[in-house]
From TrEMBL:
Top-level taxon of origin: Eukaryota
Name the record gives this protein: Uncharacterized protein
Amino acid sequence: MIAEAFPNSEQLFQQALVSRDPVPDLLHLLKTHPTPSAVNDLIIAYTDLIDAEPHRGPSLATALVRLSHSIDAPKLGDSTLRDAIHDDLEDRHFRSSSGLDNTIFGPKNQYLIDSLLSGLSLRDGWASSKEQYAAFQAGLNSPSNKEVSKGSESSEVLVMGTCIQLLLCGYAFVTEMAGSYQMKKEVVASKLRMHKEGGTVKDPRAIPVLELALLHAESGLKPENNRDDVWALLFPVELK
């Protein structure tokens, strides 16, 4: 196990991230410990919090962006804080699940949580990796219920992972940002329509989100139509 950058660093970063105004506390910790290992602990705290409480994802992501843009952000050697966060976060997507590890649709499904983290990272410019684009395409290309004889529980999870990413940052998948994974908007819409008509998605919470994703694709995946509230739409029970 890698030692923490300073005593209780991950716990202190988590406490700061969920505070009413995270940035001042985060800045204090990083100014006191302006090292790459401290940034690493910050990112561990961030991703662990999203894993444990995904409904906090959008607010946590906003805090990270505000922190990186602060005029008081410390330098870390020759790197800016934003560069250090980018370097640490860019390879943390879809590392722990294949999409088939857990076929049960719900707020604890790791693949769906990974999709949330990925969509937030694409939206905020932290990461743009082949793993993220491959996961997006896996959902589009997964078989619908019409194409399989024993149901498609794993397809439902894969499709909804794609919808989460698409609603958070749909344009990333149809612009040059995606590189060799770039798709045409019409193809994305067509594949989502296939899943809607094929009954791939059965959960009553998920069907309206699939329909919203399809509408987003049909209207051109414009950035102004992105939805930060996709997780709350899927799992409103978490918002107590």
